[in-house]
Amino acid sequence: MSQHEAVEALERLGLSNYEARVFVALQRLGTGTAKEVHSVADVPRSQVYGAAEELEERGLIEIQRSTPKRYRPVSIETAKAQLRARLEREQERAFTCLDEIQRSGGDVESRDDVWTVRGTEPVTDRLVDLAERAESELFFGAASPELVPDHLVETLRRQAEAGLSVRVVSESAEVRDLFAGTENVTVEQPVEEAPRGFTSRFLLVDDSAILLSVVTGDGGQVPGTAEETAIWSADTAIAAVLSLFIRYGVDAILG
C-alpha cells in the first residue's frame, strides 16, 4: 500500500487529512520534530502542531515537551485498538441517537403511501414487522423455502399460537412442511404452478396491510444471485383493495 493509500484509509477511519499525513510520516520517521514531519508529510509546518495535538488526544502519538517538541507514534497494534474503540463508541452513539429520534418521532408513516423495499433481507424484515402487527389474521404465500427464513417462520408460528388465524399457501412441499401440524395454521397447495423463472411472496394482514414481492434472476433458488423488490402498504384504501384482489387471485389458483 502506498503512502497516499494509507492516508486515504486513515481518513475513512475518521482522521483529518493533516492528521493522517502526520501519522503516516511519523511511522516512517519513528520520532521527529514538526520540521522533520513537515518535510516528510507535505503538511504546512504551522499545521503539524495542531494535527499532532489531535493525534495525541486520540491516543495515536506521544509528545515530548522539549524544545523543539518531538513526536513519536504509538505501536501499530495500539493504534488499531484506539481507532477501533473510537469507531465502536461513535457507532454506539450514532445508533443510540437514531433510536431516540425514531421513538420520539412516533408513527410518522404516511397513510396514503405505498412503500418500496429492495433486497431479500429488508423485505423479510418488513414481513416480520407487518406480521407482528396482526390482530386476527395472516395470509402468507411463498414459492420456495429460500424465501421463508427461520425467524419469519417463528413469527408466523408465534402468532398462530397466540390465537390468530394463519393461512399459508405454497407450491413447495418444503415450505408447507415448515408449518404442518401447527395449531391455527391452515396449509394449502395451489393447483397451478407459478410460471417458470418467476416467483414471489406475499403477506396479507387483517385485510388492512399487504406486502407483495417479486424475485427476479434465479427465482430465489441460489442465494446471493436473485433480486427481490417488494411493495407494501398498511391502513390505506389501496392496501384494502390489493388485499381483496390477491385473496381472490390466490383462491382461484387453489381451485
What would CATH call the class of the largest domain?
Alpha Beta
The general outline is: elongated
Order of helices and strands: HHHHEEHEHEHEHEEEEH
> What is the quaternary state of this protein?
single chain
Number of helices in the DSSP assignment = 9
CATH superfamily membership of the largest domain? Endonuclease Chain A
Residue share in β-strands: 15-25%
Here the CATH topology of the largest domain equals: Endonuclease, Chain A
Q: Can you list the strand order of the major beta sheet?
A: 3-9-8-7-4-5-6
Overall pLDDT, averaged? 85
Q: Which value, in Å, is the CA radius of gyration? A: 28 Å
Overall number of strands: 9
Pfam families: TrmB (PF01978)
Protein name: TrmB family transcriptional regulator
InterPro entries: TrmB-like (IPR051797), Tscrpt_reg_TrmB_N (IPR002831), WH-like_DNA-bd_sf (IPR036388), WH_DNA-bd_sf (IPR036390)
Organism: Salinirubrum litoreum
Give a quick set of tags describing it.
255 residues; alpha+beta; Arc Repressor Mutant, subunit A; 2 domains; 7-stranded mixed beta sheet; 9 helices
